[in-house]
Amino acid sequence: MNDVLRAELDRIRDKGLYRTLRTVSSSQGREIVVDGKRVLNFCSNDYLGLASDQRLIEAAERAMGSFGFGAGASRLVCGNQAEHEFLEQELSVFKKTESALLFSSGYMANVGIISALCGREDVVFSDKLNHASITDGIVLSRAEHVRYPHHDIVFLEEALKKATGFRRRVIVTDTIFSMDGDRALLREIAALAEQYDAWLMVDEAHAFGVLGPSGAGLVEELGLGDKVHVQMGTLSKAAGSFGAYVAGSTELIEYLKNSARSFMFTTAMPAAVAAASREAIRIIHSEPERRARVLHYASLLREQLKALGFETLHSSTPIIPVMVGDSDKAVKFSRLLFDEGIFISAIRPPAVPDGKSRLRITVSAAHTGDDLVCCIAALKRVRDQVGV
To answer: Which of these is catalytic: 237, 332, 356, 367?
Structure first.
């Protein structure tokens, strides 16, 4: 066995795709300590700077005082605690839906929701750049899987026209694409879903807390709440906490409670985590200046990168790709930036297509203008050494 695995690892190394874990020995923030070195953090999804916010810590501590830490069992056994229900109520109000349900992670949510709603008799249409958890959920469901080219609305419509004889048609899309930083053409997709009687599910993982008048996501920003049947999102990014949710009709949520295996057969999240997430939602709603600041900083950084000749695709969010192409070059670029005190991860296949390796820069409301200056200066210095 080990000989086979060793050979597979050698193959991964030869392709420039070998990965190792970096040790973070500090709390999340604009600066973190990685492998013993203090660096400016430009690769976290903590978009609003809440992961180390004292108010979230205190909310978790209060909940631990009442509920302890571990939930002890799945929510359908004896793990359903009041904090879970409080959070679900607040999420449904925040997302303007009838109900909501918690999952332990975004991956578990997507796998559970899609495999519960879809089966062999169904067809699912998915953007090629959707998150891996969406793809895995579709595979697990055994539904017919139609992957349409990124943002190709014409292709999607033609595929919907051809998809006859199925029990149901389902369209699934990220609202912000996690590696490109662009937004789904959600108005057009919603119109097609309505025209062709398809269910529409969105993954708001990177939009929750960042987009929309109150921070509820792209669905809220575009006013499409009545057009989207299933709204999934995470609490581990802009909310600075952990876990995920699905929001929608009462019937949807009751069905998932009884059918989504990744909900039914896993221990409930700690009450302390739910309490911290509730506090994060309160902050997101009451401090819109955080959203304004992170979007402003992202815009500034993106324009400076473009002025230097970097390719940033069609990013319009705090996720800014800097295209490199070659995997080895991307890794070298990231390593040299780290030496300069800037932490930006290299993203390689299978997270992105072959030949599309990149640096994935993320901006936070916790950053300062000086941080952006340092980041740009380091990118400019290192670029020539890498040959990008």
So the answer is: 237
